[in-house]
């Protein structure tokens, strides 16, 4: 179904766009540095089919950390929650997403949650399959099911750019391997993880994934249960407690919806029982969240009382 351009969303985008000048595009992954900091777009997908939008919603963005919540859902289906949470915790950190500090001070050295890089690397390690290729294809197939878009794939340039510069993530992997939280070849795991982060789609697809989480794992278009309600619930809870990194508390107070952001400037939101949101605004604040995207959600949440609290 085509997405209708919305005057209301356009007005909110114009208002929120003013904040892009206070943000900065991520460039620690060199290929992401090419994004235009002034971009801002949004799509909202309702359960009964219609979609409304503002801005350039055709533009493809890489998922980056948004992929963490999707790989978590897949791994929970693959292995069950008891197994998964033996290797990764359930608590927010208060530290930046790529921090190694807590790994060293916590005993055992298990990452605090699956939304920080250390935890996400453990989750990616748990994706089942006989080879990197098979594991990656299983994740992509799952995402194609969630978006209902068989063309979803990954951006080779972004994956390569991150793979070549992921020194900190390599350090996290070696730490995890030393402490027997993971046991695979670090380069192989990074190959899979950087491809996962480079999976790309537009805001509409992002909103479509959001609506599946919002509707407890049911695809409202095909009416299929894509993931068990309990897994959708676990993922949404992590989105609330850890989805916006170490800004999740403030986000919960000011906006109050489950959401997951990525350093590409994407945000996927799931308003329980109501709709899914996909946002792209690559100018980031100092914590790595889309600065204008958060403003846009703040305006939207205030206007339509979206907070679940
Ligand atoms: N691929 C990125 C990384 O590991 C994802 C981080 C993010 O979006 N916060 O650094």
Automatic annotation (TrEMBL):
Name used for this protein in its record: Glutaminase
Record key words, sorted: Acetylation, Hydrolase
EC annotation from Swiss-Prot or TrEMBL: 3.5.1.2
UniProt key word Acetylation: yes
Pfam families associated with the record: Glutaminase
UniProt-recorded Gene Ontology molecular function terms: glutaminase activity
PANTHER family found in the cross-reference section: GLUTAMINASE
Subunit structure: Homotetramer.
Family: Belongs to the glutaminase family.
Catalyzed reactions per annotation: L-glutamine + H2O = L-glutamate + NH4(+)
Chain positions recorded as substrate binding sites: 65, 117, 162, 169, 193, 245, 263
Keyword Zinc: no
Coiled coil location: none
Top-tier EC class: hydrolase
């Amino acid at each position: 179904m085509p997405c209708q351009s919305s005057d209301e969303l356009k007005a909110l985008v114009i208002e929120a766009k003013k904040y892009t000048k206070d943000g900065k595009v991520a460039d620690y992954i060199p290929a992401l540095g090419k994004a235009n900091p002034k971009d801002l777009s949004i799509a909202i997908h309702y359960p009964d089919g219609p979609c409304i939008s503002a801005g350039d919603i055709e533009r493809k963005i890489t998922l980056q950390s948004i992929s963490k919540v999707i790989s978590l859902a897949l791994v929970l289906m693959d292995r069950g929650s008891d197994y998964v949470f033996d290797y990764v915790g359930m608590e927010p950190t208060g530290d930046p997403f790529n921090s190694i500090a807590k790994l060293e001070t916590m005993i055992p050295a298990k990452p605090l949650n699956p939304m920080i890089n250390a935890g996400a690397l453990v989750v990616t390690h748990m994706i089942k399959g006989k080879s990197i290729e098979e594991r990656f294809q299983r994740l992509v197939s799952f995402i194609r099911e969630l978006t209902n878009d068989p063309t979803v794939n990954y951006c080779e340039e972004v994956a390569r750019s991150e793979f070549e510069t992921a020194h900190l993530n390599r350090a996290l992997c070696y730490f995890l391997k030393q402490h027997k939280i993971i046991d695979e070849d670090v380069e192989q795991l990074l190959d899979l993880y950087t491809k996962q982060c480079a999976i790309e789609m537009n805001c509409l697809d992002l909103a479509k994934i959001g609506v599946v989480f919002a509707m407890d794992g049911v695809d409202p278009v095909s009416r299929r249960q894509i993931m068990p309600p309990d897994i959708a619930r676990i993922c949404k809870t992590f989105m609330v407690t850890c989805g916006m990194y170490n800004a999740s508390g403030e986000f919960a107070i000011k906006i109050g919806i489950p959401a997951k952001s990525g350093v590409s400037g994407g945000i996927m939101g799931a308003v329980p029982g109501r709709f899914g949101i996909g946002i792209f605004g690559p100018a980031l604040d100092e914590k790595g969240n889309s600065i204008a995207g958060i403003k846009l959600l703040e305006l939207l949440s205030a206007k339509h009382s979206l907070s679940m609290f």
